[in-house]
Design a protein that fits this description.
The complex is a heterodimer of chains A (about 180) and B (about 240). The mean pLDDT of chain A is about 95. Helices cover about 25% and strands about 35% of the residues of chain A. Chain A is of the alpha/beta class and about 180 residues long. Chain A has a seven-stranded mixed β-sheet with strand order 2-1-3-4-13-12-11, sandwiched between helices. Chain A has one domain: Class I glutamine amidotransferase (GATase) domain (Rossmann fold, 3-Layer(aba) Sandwich), CATH 3.40.50.880. Chain B has about 240 residues and is α/β, with parallel strands linked by helices. Chain B has one domain: Aldolase class I (TIM Barrel). Chain B is built from nine helices and twelve strands. In chain B, α1 runs parallel beside α2 and α8 packs across α9. Chain B is globular. Classes of the chains: A alpha/beta (about 180), B alpha/beta (about 240). Chains A and B meet through α1, β8, β9 and α5 of A and α2, α3 and α5 of B.
Chain lengths: ~180, ~240
């Protein structure tokens, strides 16, 4: 059985992520260092999230250097970058080269199901900022949707809220971990 | 733009889905988890649960419903009704809701929108606006809140709302079609996503609403029947609406 640890920093959607990985048969632990997969969830603002991460920030950086899998979700992806322009500028974890910038879209926040290419599968998004990084491997309507850098995979959408498609994505993350 | 969304709305009270005429004669029509899961299977893009009792006694019941829904339903859902503080909202999000919706409490104290957006992020904050003849109404549409609908929508956006759920009171339950004029005025006034509510009677009405807004709330048109959602989706696709 794969073990999953979720970085807790006061984000609202921890329970949804926990329920989603449990549904797939994973065991949820508090051991961010040793779990097969570490998840950096994300809802809220960049500054309060970075403040809330505290010591977990170093654990995540070390995990990445050691080549151990990390999944960043939504704000969790943006936190992994060098910096975010949210809240007047916030330093990120620096795991992935790049920055989070205010989303340029017809309607902001960008909320709803949108296709991700390559693949063409639709997932649920809810964001006002987006990642700008060379590590982008899939996009959705021109916005970074999946980012990969070493053992870090970041997704702008919410797999834990994307029905069957989201469950399949999480299952892949677990099987690779 | 993300795909247009169909959002079934379930009224809940005391932990059950209820149906009533103008908030009276409430009838128990099912379990929120079962009905929510069935709508999810039927192709719903999101769900909205509105606690229409929203008394102090029911706060714990509302959090319990959100927690139970999150266990079974893997699409996003919004919870509204009786939320007056960041604490109320946080409890619902921690239980597994993705967004909360505020209405009368935001009209009474508009700073609440800022507090919620700062703490939860704008994407989690829906402001519900009940409108008739271009005016906002509060307290389950029983009082004129002395505000212009478009002006209030703009203020909500400035204060950090992430989405507007706009119900046309005079259309609600009539199945005569959405108030397209009002929705178009709001589309032009704000750059937030708008969820249209009130008046859906057939697929064409829903298709028309999705031309001027990003999502359609579906209440009486579904009659608490997930099969109706399945057939509605087929009819909408035949009308050329691009759904998930």
């Amino acid at each position: 059985m794969k073990t999953v640890a979720i970085a807790r920093y006061g984000a609202g959607n921890v329970r949804s992520v926990e329920l989603a990985v449990r549904r797939l048969g994973a065991d949820v632990t508090d051991d961010l260092e040793r779990a097969d997969l570490a998840v950096l969830p994300g809802v809220g603002s960049a500054r309060s999230a970075m403040d809330g991460l505290g010591a977990a920030a170093d654990v995540l950086r070390e995990r990445h250097q050691a080549g151990r899998p990390i999944l960043g979700i939504c704000l969790g992806l943006q936190l992994a970058l060098d910096e975010s322009e949210e809240d007047g500028g916030v330093a990120g974890l620096g795991i992935v080269p790049g920055r989070a910038v205010r989303l340029e879209a017809e309607r902001v926040p960008r909320i709803g199901w949108a296709k991700v290419d390559p693949g063409g599968e639709a997932y649920w998004f809810a964001h006002s900022y987006e990642a700008v990084t060379d590590a982008t491997v899939a996009t959705s309507e021109g916005h970074a949707a999946v980012v990969e850098h070493g053992s870090f995979v970041g997704v702008q959408f919410h797999p834990e809220k994307s029905g069957a498609a989201g469950a399949r994505f999480l299952e892949q993350c677990l099987s690779r971990a | 733009m993300p795909l247009p969304r169909l959002i079934p709305c379930l009224d809940v009270a005391g932990g059950r889905v209820v149906k009533g005429v103008r908030f009276r004669e409430l009838r128990d029509v099912g379990d929120p988890v079962e009905l929510g899961a069935a709508y999810s299977d039927g192709g719903a893009d999101e769900l909205v649960f509105l606690d229409i009792s929203a008394s102090l006694d029911d706060k714990a019941a509302a959090v319990d419903v959100a927690a139970r829904v999150a266990e079974q339903v893997t699409i996003p859902f919004t919870f509204g009704g009786g939320i007056r503080s960041v604490e109320d909202a946080t409890a619902l999000l921690e239980a597994g809701a993705d967004k909360i919706s505020v209405n009368s409490a935001a009209l009474a104290r508009p700073e609440l929108i800022e507090e919620l957006a700062r703490s939860l992020g704008s994407q989690a904050v829906v402001v519900a606006i009940d409108t008739e003849d271009g005016r906002v109404h509060s307290h389950s549409a029983t009082r004129d809140a002395a505000r212009d609908t478009v002006e209030w929508a703009k203020e909500c956006e400035q204060r950090g709302a992430g989405e507007l759920l706009v119900t046309s009171i005079d259309r609600d339950g009539t199945q005569d079609g959405y108030d397209l004029e009002q929705l178009a005025a709001l589309r032009d006034a704000v750059s937030l996503p708008v969820i249209a509510s009130g008046g859906a009677g057939n697929a064409q009405h829903v298709a028309d609403a999705l031309e001027v807004s990003q999502a359609a709330l579906l209440a009486s048109i579904l009659h608490e029947d997930p099969e109706r959602l399945v057939s509605l989706r087929v009819e909408l696709k035949e009308l050329g609406v691009c759904l998930r």
